[in-house]
């Protein structure tokens, strides 16, 4: 599992828009990448909002567990997986640069 004390920040490679309750990550810059839109479910949209470069994965998981009334242990795994996916597309980076 990922380091739950790690903090992540959004990169400038993506922006987000919410239209009619649906949040979508949109690649910035190259118009050819507009085919690669990433819709987020309600939990994913909330996690995206929590990524601020200062809140740890553990902190995000605690907020999600409380807000969505979900088991903290399961949320930690899901938050780590979500952050890993965002890292793979270049939407977030570790505050330590990794």
Task: List the main descriptive attributes of the protein structure presented here.
globular; 3 helices; alpha+beta; single chain; 39% helix; 98 residues; 5 strands; two-stranded antiparallel ribbon; three-stranded antiparallel beta sheet
What's this entry about, in short?
The protein is of the alpha+beta class and 98 residues long.
Descriptive report:
By secondary structure, this protein is α+β, with helices and mostly antiparallel strands. The protein is 39% helix and 21% strand. It has three helices and five strands, in the order ββββαααβ. It has helices at residues 42-50, 57-68, 72-88, and strands at residues 8-10, 14-19, 22-27, 38-40, 92-94. The protein has a three-stranded antiparallel beta sheet with strand order 2-3-4. A two-stranded antiparallel ribbon has the order 1-5. A hairpin with a 2-residue loop joins β2 and β3. The longest helix is centred in the last third of the chain and has 17 residues, at 72-88. The chain is globular, with a radius of gyration of 13 Å. The chain starts with 7 loop residues before the first strand and ends with a strand. The model has no long low-confidence stretch (mean pLDDT 90).
């Amino acid at each position: 599992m990922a380091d739950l004390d790690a903090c992540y920040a959004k990169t400038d490679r993506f922006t987000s828009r919410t239209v009619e309750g649906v949040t979508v990550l949109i690649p910035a810059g190259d118009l050819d990448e507009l085919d690669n839109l990433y819709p987020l479910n309600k939990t994913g949209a909330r996690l995206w909002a929590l990524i601020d470069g200062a809140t740890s994965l553990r902190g995000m998981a605690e907020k999600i567990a409380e807000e969505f009334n979900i088991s903290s242990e399961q949320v930690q795994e899901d938050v780590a997986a979500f952050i890993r996916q965002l890292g793979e597309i270049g939407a977030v980076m570790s505050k330590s640069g990794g």
